[in-house]
Specification:
Length: 139
């Protein structure tokens, strides 16, 4: 049984469509040939995620999402996906989309990282963006 959990750290935020989101994650994982053991989404503030970025990734930058994988790539996925709600709102304004659509994009991005997709090089970024768009169109 897959467990998808939602947590909120130092931020007030109402997540809508939890059941629909869980179904979407399951379909995404299934299409990628994977399952999930335990997947946690932690919604937080910029400062909370900045502390994690500094402590674990040695980066002093604001970011919208950080994903930590807790298993081998051959096993069902287990991991934490931290998402900054202020970054989501700012990105939505920059990219002229709704905060809800941007949140789904970032959630998909986090899952794709746990599936092994990277975004360090230009070609990796292209692939992960294509995957994001593909799965967003399936929501």
């Amino acid at each position: 049984m897959s467990a998808f959990n939602f947590f909120f750290e130092d931020i007030e935020f109402l997540l809508r469509e939890k059941t629909r989101l869980r179904g979407w994650y399951l379909k995404m994982l299934s299409e990628e040939g994977r399952t999930a053991e335990n997947l946690n989404f932690i919604f937080c503030s910029d400062s909370y995620l900045l502390k994690i970025n500094k402590k674990y990734l040695n980066k002093n930058d604001y970011t919208d999402v950080i994903a930590f994988q807790y298993n081998l790539k051959s096993e069902p996925i287990a991991g934490d996906i931290y998402i900054s709600i202020p970054r989501i709102k700012e990105n939505a304004a920059i990219f002229k989309t709704s905060p809800s659509a941007e949140l789904k994009r970032v959630m998909a991005h986090g899952i794709l990282h746990l599936l092994g997709y990277k975004d360090k090089t230009k070609s990796e970024k292209k692939i992960i963006r294509e995957k994001e768009n593909y799965y967003l169109n399936k929501f």
